[in-house]
Amino acid sequence: MPVRRPEGPLEYEAYCSWNGRTGGRVKLQSGVEYDVDMSEEFGGAGEAPSPDEFFIASVSGCILTTALWFAEKLGVKLSELAVRAKSRVELVGGG
């Protein structure tokens, strides 16, 4: 996997439109689309993963792909690689 360095900064964009209920539809510049919903704990219907879940998934994906990039660059042969990320949301106060 040859590394192709961009000439400038990488830019990403996402668009999210409300579905009229407790969530929405996300569209990424790559063409990928997916639904999001507030978790039931926040009054949502829980019909799709919450943005919190996607956030922690993006963190674990970033760590994994960074490790893969370095392994390739350094010539490290991998037989397995996995990342587990956890988050905790603590509701405080009345807000």
Characteristics of this structure?
95 residues, 2 domains, three-stranded antiparallel sheet, 1 helix, 25% helix, 17% strand
Outline the fold blueprint:
Blueprint: E1 14-18, E2 23-28, E3 33-37, H1 51-74
Antiparallel strand pairs: 1-2, 2-3
Model description:
The chain has 95 residues and is an alpha+beta fold. It folds into two domains: 13-49; 51-87, no CATH class. Helices cover 25% and strands 17% of the residues. It has one helix and three strands, in the order βββα. A three-stranded antiparallel β-sheet has the order 1-2-3, with no helix packed on it. The mean pLDDT is 94.
Strand content: 15-25%
Low-pLDDT residue intervals, each spanning 5 or more residues: none
Quaternary state of the chains: single chain
When the domains are counted, the total is 2
Mean pLDDT, to the nearest integer, reads 94
Helix content: 25-40%
* Largest sheet, strands/sense/barrel: 3 strands, antiparallel
Structural class: alpha+beta
The helix/strand order is: EEEH
Global shape: extended
